[in-house]
From TrEMBL:
This is Glycoside hydrolase family 31 protein. Belongs to the glycosyl hydrolase 31 family. Keywords: Glycoprotein, Glycosidase, Hydrolase, Signal. It comes from Coniophora puteana (strain RWD-64-598) (Brown rot fungus). Residues 761-851 form the Glycosyl hydrolase family 31 C-terminal domain. One of its GO terms (biological process) is carbohydrate metabolic process. Pfam families: Glyco_hydro_31_2nd, Glyco_hydro_31_3rd.
Length: 977
């Protein structure tokens, strides 16, 4: 793809062709809360704006924008007077903010998403990004100074292009047929669009499970439809191509120039918590693609990131919103949970069974079974009595294991004085609840029955929340970390269904008794519902390779109750329809009020739920992080949460939600892991073996191995489903032992990657093209990934498979060596290579030129593993070089204390270790393995002294030095000749 075309030429070429295409009529169904809209106004003549009163300053410009004609009033009321501020914040970050001059529109408070301090030096002439504009009609574009002839990175000069309506979908939503893409800025509707190179590579714009894969569909090739994605936090299970738990309106664009074989990457963030649709499309016969934003409130608060690499874009985004939290070393262990451990005895037996099977278990979790009638911060006095829980958790701690309980977003409402529940009553006393517009408490319905929802904008809420955690810990639930669920917010009824009701009238949810249906690919005619791969030597796999279960939806846990709404006018916005905004976003459930609290609910400070909804999870994560710090002072908080928003990674990790036990869902989890590296939430992973439905032996075998190579590693299962703990099947137990041993040996490498993430925003997990940006065959690859830059992972993702096709980046210029055997791969340059992959194996390969610090003796727990000696694995490049680093500290202190950085450098015939820092590394380096040594050395020396304790394996060109006992607090040099 050529990058040197001038955008105006492209637009002129495309406008004629696109103008001849038919445009469907506008959807005029009335707005009724189920996702369709009424239009009133002249939709084809929105006037745009004129720039005036331009003022330059040392950091950028400020100007006014005035409505250029009669108001359009397409989906609200046009705002006549706007302000635009352009700030060159750094050499690589440009901030463009368009807002109403009167400042009546919602903007995200700095108390929610903290932004960097204003720049102290000017970057207006040195930034790689440059802002340009047309005054009338107003449009702007962003270019690179380093690529002045290239198509702009963002270009709103699209007025000559008639918009293509987006038809209503089963989930609802509005069609739009505005004539061209003039800037539209109304009290309840904002619209702006940018031209992009045709068929460019776009990533992000989630949270989403995209049917097109990690790379978003931009509609440029035959058979592609483009992308319509809604941003609105929703408890929607794991749907495909729909809004779900998190909202992250950032994308990364990678442009490749075929004529030169070079590429560059940039990023764009619209920092908005308002519901929106984002459309990626390529008009028929057009030379450009488009991205269009349709937002139902707020302002246009854009940040542009220059890159020019994928890694630097992600780092620049992290510098804006904050780098990820420091993870405790134990967080990288294997975690186990299910909904359906009915009592403490059953939970204890699972821990014992894992130990008996010699499958490492780092952390045991409990789901809502723990609670007394599903109430937060309790334990059932019969099933999970406090004294027994305290004893159980102490047993875990004595074995250097950990415990994590769940906390749901909704807090039970009690109806009478005999029902003592301090979390609720103290919340009433401290006025911490989200309100109805009339000031009464907003009451929804979740697991415990009628519930209230904490208002994080209220002044007393965080202190009340912290006290609840302290009381819980004091009662016997002495947690090591916290799991935050249902925080989209999720509720099972429409609107404030408990307001005015008899609050003692509803009972807690009882739960399903079993999950119906056989596991995917399971032949039930052979023998009962065991989930075994074979019965009496006969395979139970009834699937053809490559089965697609993407049509299987999430199970419904509870019926939804419909109630009347509470009216309009919350949030000090008189005359604004908060419950049914004129433009209906294509939300998963249809209307924005479905399966969550109503958009007219009111928060302290006059904020309306319509504006702040998608940030609730972030604010809970921040409050919980602080609470855990209070309860566990000096320790790194370990949090996993479901709903996320920009900057959530400062406070929490994330699991990918309520997936299904299917092969397709296992594959989909890879794109989720890759997405959240971009979103600066790197501690992420799926419910291994799947949550909903029943898993079978083969699926769980493959998934347990795959998840050992992703950041967050937890097996979690739904209520009443076939048990899927890894010891349930012999082959899964064996696969798990193999995979976890590999994971624990890699811990120093994982730990270093996450230290880099917490200090610089560098993504620990990477798409292949991040490291090889000029290889177009990699741009859509999302069935493989890299851990850091040096380990390539290729899982089996199809039932019945005994081989797997892998692509090895580098086009023959990189040597990849097998993690398990150390043999070099004879890889096809630029194409796929078929690898053996029998059951209980996973392919992982080491990149040449790498040097990895490892734990030599993986043990049952992370603590025991860290006590053992270190090993080094060095994979030489063709030129005989290698490089690596390792970060070492105590693994738990917060803020981090003393540390040590180790640097490893190999040159032909020599390997050097440099050591810097105050932390004392007690463990010795016992083994160095060097791959790629072409012939057996005649002599080896360590620190100038000849050693005889080395072996050489010619088949793998492998030099192994053993029993070294090197002190990593000091440097060392190894020579061979």
């Amino acid at each position: 793809m050529l990058l040197t075309s001038v955008v105006s030429v492209l637009l002129a070429a495309s406008s004629t062709a696109w103008g001849n295409t038919a445009t469907p009529s506008f959807d005029t169904a009335s707005a009724n809360g189920n996702g369709t809209s009424t239009f009133s106004g002249n939709v084809t003549n929105c006037p745009g704006y004129t720039l005036q009163n331009l003022s330059h300053n040392e950091h950028g410009i400020t100007a006014s924008l005035s409505l250029a004609g009669d108001a359009c009033n397409a989906f609200g009321k046009d705002i006549a007077n706007l302000t635009i501020e352009v700030v060159y914040e750094t050499e690589s970050r440009l901030h463009v903010h368009i807002y109403d001059t009167a400042k009546n529109q919602f903007t995200i408070p700095d108390t929610v998403v903290a932004r960097p301090a204003p720049p102290t030096q000017s970057h207006t002439t040195t930034s790689d990004l440059e802002f340009s504009y047309d005054a009338s009609p107003f449009a702007f574009w962003i270019t690179r100074r380093s690529q002045p002839d290239a198509m702009p990175l963002f270009d709103t000069r699209t007025r000559s292009l008639p918009a293509t309506p987006i038809a209503s979908t089963p989930a609802g939503g509005s069609s739009v047929n505005l004539d061209g893409f003039e800037l539209v800025f109304e009290d309840q509707y904002l619209q702006i669009a940018s031209a992009l190179p045709k068929g460019t590579n776009v990533y992000g714009l989630g949270e989403v499970i995209a049917s097109s894969g990690f790379r978003r569909d931009i509609g440029a090739d035959p058979g592609e439809n483009g992308t319509l994605h809604a941003f609105w936090a929703s408890d929607m299970g794991d749907p495909v191509d729909q809004s779900m738990y998190g909202s992250h309106p950032i994308y990364m664009e990678h442009r490749y120039d075929e004529s030169t074989g070079t590429s560059s990457t940039n990023g764009v963030l619209l920092l908005s918590s308002n519901a929106m649709d984002v459309v990626l499309t390529t008009p028929p016969d057009s030379n450009v693609s488009l991205i269009e934003y349709r937002v139902i409130g707020g302002t246009l608060d854009f940040y542009f990131f220059a890159g020019p690499t994928a890694g630097s874009v992600i780092e620049q985004y992290g510098a804006l919103i904050g780098y990820p939290l420091w993870q405790p070393a134990w967080g990288f262990g294997f975690h186990l949970c299910r909904w359906g451990y009915h009592n403490i005895s059953e939970t204890r037996e699972v821990v014992k069974a894992m130990r008996a099977a010699d499958i490492p278990l780092e952390t045991q979790w409990n789901d809502i079974d723990l609670f007394q009638v599903f109430r937060d911060f309790t334990s059932d006095p019969v099933s999970f009595p406090g004294d027994e829980m305290r004893e159980f958790i102490a047993e875990l701690a004595s074995n250097h294991q950990h415990y994590i309980p769940i906390v749901d977003a909704a807090v039970a409402v009690t109806a009478n004085s005999t029902d003592v529940y301090d979390t609720y009553t103290s919340g009433v006393e401290q006025d911490v609840w989200i309100k109805n517009p009339d000031g009464s408490m907003y009451i929804g319905q979740v697991w415990p029955g009628y519930t209230g929802f904490p208002d994080w904008f209220a002044p007393n809420t965080e202190a009340w929340w912290t006290q609840a955690f302290q009381n819980w810990s004091d009662s016997g639930i002495t947690f090591d970390g916290i799991w935050l669920d249902m925080n989209e917010l999720s509720t099972f009824c429409f609107y404030s269904c408990g307001t005015g009701a008899n609050l003692s009238d509803i009972q807690p949810y009882v739960g399903a008794t079993s999950v119906e249906g056989w596991p995917e690919c399971y032949n039930d005619t052979l023998s009962g519902k065991s989930g075994n791969m074979t019965v009496n030597g006969t395979s139970t796999n009834s699937c053809a390779s490559g089965s697609d279960s993407s049509s299987i939806g999430p199970q419904k846990r509870m019926s939804i109750v419909n109630r009347n709404g509470r009216g309009v006018g919350a949030g000090d916005e008189p005359g604004v329809d908060l419950n049914s905004p004129p433009y209906a976003v294509h939300n998963s459930y249809g209307g924005l009020n479905l399966h969550t609290i109503a958009t007219n609910a009111t928060h302290a400070g006059g904020y309306a739920e319509l504006d702040v909804h998608s940030m609730w999870g972030l604010m809970e994560e921040k409050a919980t992080h602080h609470a855990v710090q209070t309860v566990l002072p000096g320790k790194r908080p370990f949090l996993i949460s479901r709903s996320t928003f920009p900057s959530s990674g400062k406070w929490t990790g994330h699991w990918l939600g309520d997936n299904n036990s299917t092969w397709q869902n296992m594959y989909y989890s890879i794109q989720g892991i890759l997405q959240f590296q971009l979103y600066q939430i790197p501690m992420v992973g799926p419910d291994t073996c799947g949550f909903n439905r029943n898993a079978d032996e083969e699926l769980c075998n493959r998934w347990m191995m795959m998840s050992a190579f992703v950041p967050f590693y937890r097996n979690h299962n739904t209520y009443g489903a076939l048990s899927q703990e890894p010891y349930r099947w012999d082959s899964v137990a064996n696969a798990s032992r193999i995979a976890i041993a590999a994971r624990y040996s890699m811990l120093p490498y994982w730990y270093t990657l996450f230290a880099n993430s917490s200090t610089a925003g560098t993504p620990p997990v990477r798409a292949l093209w991040y490291e090889f940006p000029n290889e177009p065959e990699l741009f859509a690859v999302d069935k493989q990934w890299l851990i850091g830059s040096d380990i390539l992972v290729t899982p089996v993702l199809e039932p019945g498979a005994t081989t797997v096709d892998a692509i090895f980046p580098g086009r023959g210029n990189v040597t990849w060596r097998d993690w398990w055997t150390h043999a070099a791969v004879n890889a096809t340059s630029g194409g796929t290579t078929t690898l053996p992959a029998p059951i209980s194996t996973i392919n992982a390969h080491i990149r040449d030129g790498s040097a990895l610090l490892l734990h030599q003796e993986p043990a049952y727990t992370i603590y025991e593993t860290r006590l053992g000696p270190y090993a080094l694995l060095v994979s030489l490049s063709a030129a005989g070089g290698a490089f690596g680093t390792a970060y070492v500290d105590d693994g738990e202190s917060y803020p981090p204390g003393d540390s040590r950085t180790l640097t490893f450098v190999a040159n032909p015939g020599q390997f050097r270790i440099q050591s810097e820092g105050a932390y004392d590394v007690a463990q010795k380096l016992e083994t160095i393995t060097v791959l790629g040594v072409a012939q057996k050395p005649s002599g080896v020396s360590v620190q100038g002294r000849a050693v005889g304790n080395f072996t050489y394996l010619p088949a793998t060109e492998e030099l192994v030095l053993s029993n070294l006992g090197l002190d990593l607090n000091e440097g060392a040099t190894v020579n061979w000749h």
